[in-house]
Write a structure and sequence with these properties.
With 397 residues, the protein is an alpha/beta fold. The protein is 41% helix and 14% strand. It is built from 13 helices and 15 strands. It has a 7-stranded mixed beta sheet with strand order 2-10-9-8-7-3-4, sandwiched between helices. Strands 11-12-15-14 form a 4-stranded antiparallel beta sheet. Strands 1-13 form a two-stranded parallel sheet.
Amino acid sequence: MTMKTISLQLGSDAANLKRSEIRRLIGLAAAPGVLSCAAGLPSGEHIPVNEFRDCMDTVLQRDGSRALQYGPQYEPLTQWIFEFMRRRNVDCELEQVLITNGAQQGLAIISRLLLDRNDVAVTEEITFTGIQQVTAGRGIQVRTIPTHPDHGADMDALEKALQKEPRPKLVILIPDFHNPLGVSIVKENRARAAALAAEYAVPIIEDDPYSQLRFSGKPLLPIISHDRRGLVFYLGSFSKMLAPAMRLGWIVAPIDLIPKIRALRESLDLETSALIQRSVAEFIHRGLLEPHLEAMNATHGSRCSAMQSALEEHMADVATWTHPEGGLFIWVTLKEGINSRQLFKEAIERKVAYVPGEAFAIQGGHENTMRLSFCNLTDEQIHEAIKRLSAIVHAQG
């Protein structure tokens, strides 16, 4: 017998929050035989399964039950993160590092730290759906700025957004290999972003899960390296560097706010798995991280080039696209009048998948865009996927 439930009044967060549309679409894209350019995942063949298994076995043999108990964040991993940030010219202290269950948890924590319902936050007009969930999904008023395909988030627009009343209480930017756009904020604009935060006393979340996935060009220092007022909250992640299922990331935040951030984090899930922390630390200690990233990025770069070539061959007359130097994504803009969501059902029927761009548009629109990921198909599969996609687009256009 099915029990009839009582109609309950939901809290504001639950009432406003919507599940990511991308999760539903990726479920369809996972059907057998589909050439999927949809999922934002690092290449599966480069996930270090055997190496990580060895590291985990070592941790369990060495540390025994300590690796499976509650406990404080693992000091050797915290120390590595601190040194990693210092190598990137970030003037921080060890106590400013807080380990999290991925960068998304960091977004949720800092959103709760700084924003109340109906406050104003500034985000990019097109952005990662997780950023939408911790802003508009919590009843926050979102003021958007455009993102330029060559130099990233528009700093002139950001300054205007900071000047407008009511003043924002938070800015969220993706500095490197933007999800979904694939673009990066250029060097001079990183310094300007930090300067604007200082001038208007508005903090920035620098959401940076992708910077270590560079396959061409020169590395850029993060926005937080230019921060002199303690107004930039940096979010890093091992989820894209090693494996998404690890759900392991970190926050670098002003030291006086760490106790509040720690309390907020504990209210969510207490702490991060000791086994995962210790195993990742062992992986790094063995010197495996750098060669792993080098091999994975080389594959990603080759596949990005393959997708660029296929787009040039099959879709140059109906589309333009971004040219990333790293990350996982290419953003495609189709001719006006071509609706990528309307094409999606036919694409699945023809065994090819992508994410319609409007899923990333906070205030709607951008129906003629799509996000493509190049990481989990071979060069030959990429060419075939773009060929199929081109046939569908040309039929509508």
